[in-house]
Amino acid sequence: MLDTRPNHTIYINNLNEKIKKDDLKKSLYAIFSQFGQILDIVAMKGIKMNGQAFVIFKDITSSTNALRAMQGFPFYDKPMRIQFAKSESDIIAKMKGTFVERQKKPKKPKDDEEAKKRRKAAKEQARALAQQNNPGGVSGGNVPEQPPNQILFLTNLPDETTEMMLSMLFNQFPGFKEVRLVPNRHDIAFVEFENEHQSNTAKLSLNGFKITPTHAMKITFAKK
After folding, report:
1. What is the C-alpha separation between 160 and 187, in angstroms, rounded?
2. What secondary structure letter does DSSP report for 214?
3. Which stretches within 1-159 are classed as H helix?
4. Where is the composition biased (Low complexity) (predicted)?
5. Could you give the CA distance from residue 162 to residue 181 in angstroms, rounded to a whole number?
6. Is 119 within 8 Å of 168 (Cβ atoms)?
7. In this structure, what DSSP letter does residue 221 have?
8. Residue 71 pLDDT greater than 90, yes or no
9. Distance of alpha carbon 189 from its chain centroid, rounded?
10. What is the rounded average pLDDT for all residues in the chain?
11. E strands of the chain, at which residues?
12. Helix (H, G, I), strand (E, B) or coil at 213
């Protein structure tokens, strides 16, 4: 919704989209110049901008009178809808000395995009490996089973296990919150979910998953 606060520029829509841009500007000038000096008329073509234009007057009195008098005026068989523009036009700002060059949105560093792609690829690879190595969820024994809760206890992890590696494995499951490694212990870790149902889903899917050919990860519920 455009601002209704009076300013030098009026915004017009519901214009006939079949009219050529140059003809449209000439016609708008012809009917609006009666209200005062016009500094510029901006009419843009394109799917999103068709049927729209901006008329910039030298003073606010002219734009206000034009809006009141021409609201709903049948212009090429369509009633014009007119409002004050949302912001002051550049040409008026330059006249007032308040013009500020618009900053272009900085492009994201290419490295960030590449890193995202790598993380996404690694995540998809981890998901595929999980399904390949453990299609039915192999049960891992030797660890006493605790009552279901939102925290999983991982054992039999290889020395090269990292927080990112485990995060990629587990964040494919809904409710994943975080991975917590144990200082000075590379073979165990904790993974927390929002609730026990979500942690159980991950447990059933990844219990017995081989992070390396010689290390089948064992997952149980953590002690509360």
Report:
1. 9
2. T
3. 21-32, 60-70, 90-96, 110-133
4. 127-144
5. 8
6. yes
7. E
8. yes
9. 33
10. 80
11. 9-13, 38-43, 52-57, 74-75, 78-79, 81-84, 151-155, 176-182, 185-193, 210-212, 215-216, 218-221
12. coil
What is the pLDDT, as a whole number, of residue 1? Answer: 41
Other residues' Cβ atoms within 10 Å of the Cβ of residue 191: 26
Give the C-alpha separation, 171 to 52, whole Å.
47
What whole-number distance in Å separates Cα of residue 124 and Cα of residue 160? 20
Which contiguous run of DSSP H or E holds residue 202?
A: helix 196-206
Q: Determine which of 44-48, 52-56, 155-159, 194-198 has the lowest per-residue pLDDT on average.
A: 44-48
Please give the CATH architecture assigned to the domain spanning 9-96.
2-Layer Sandwich (3.30)
pLDDT at 185 over 50: yes
Calpha distance 209→77 (Å, rounded): 70
Give the mean pLDDT of 30-38.
89
Ranges in the chain annotated CATH 3.30.70.330: 9-96, 151-221
Fold for domain 151-221?
Answer: Alpha-Beta Plaits (3.30.70)
* Residue 33 DSSP code: G
